[in-house]
Amino acid sequence: MVDILHRVGVKDATPENVYEALTTVDGLAGWWTTDTSEHDGVLRFRFPPIGGFDMEVLETRPAERVTWKVVDGPEEWIGTTVDWQLRREGEYTVILFGHRGWKEPVEFMNHCSTKWATFLLSLKSLVENGKGSPAPDDVRVGDWH
Amino acid sequence: MVDILHRVGVKDATPENVYEALTTVDGLAGWWTTDTSEHDGVLRFRFPPIGGFDMEVLETRPAERVTWKVVDGPEEWIGTTVDWQLRREGEYTVILFGHRGWKEPVEFMNHCSTKWATFLLSLKSLVENGKGSPAPDDVRVGDWH
Questions:
Q1: Closest CB to B7 among A9, A111, A124
Q2: Which of B1, B8, B18 to mutate to test the interface with A (most CBs of A within 10 A)?
Q3: B139/A121 touch (CB, cutoff 8 Å), yes or no
Q4: Membrane-spanning residues where (chains A, B) (predicted)?
Q5: Which of B95, B116, B86 is nearest to B4 (CA)?
Q6: Structural domains of chain B in order of their starting residue, each with its CATH number
Q7: What is the pTM of this model?
């Protein structure tokens, strides 16, 4: 099992601010994909025309931690978990991110690692300045988008 | 042992173009840090006032692969390797990146993973448009810079 790990610090923000961007449809649509919805505790993120991800919300500890389990999407993603740990460090809220449980370090994992970094910076920008870069206006990192 | 993995595609570029940005002092100074030098097969990357990294060049296979070994820098980095695999995919040159052999997935590894993504996008921009964002003008991702 291999993991994608990232860390960003959101300036002049509280863990509550970041938590809101991770647990509301409006918040999520502001940094990951505008095509976000929720049905019965499952978050649906779509990236037309490519496809998307369904995340079961496993854990929400206000202003501290969010954990999702991937229940639908690309084969390599299914069964993996995505977790977000939040804590205050001075004027920053630090986000520790993990996308864990990849069976193999396939090339698609390399791509997803780089894309996650751009989406974390989109989340940081959303909370800091009110404007993220969600799909379809996300940062293109290469031939796989 | 745990690894940081990334993948970017550089548009309208040949593997030779990317290889040059990875194997010349001018190229490296254009996307990672302006304070780059080489002495006896060791690349010295400095990020004043924080410190830096010394990389022994283990392998250079023109337009295909570059491998470095970290011989000086932060304790967690020493002994790890950084490798770059290049290949053509249509109008893109794909870069597969690995920073391998971390002993533990410490929080500093999360930070370095996100920073590497920003430097890979800096490298992509340098080769595509002639302008990267090397330190000291690199993308700030949080309280750890």
A1: A111
A2: B8
A3: yes
A4: none
A5: B116
A6: 2-129 (3.30.530.20)
A7: 0.97
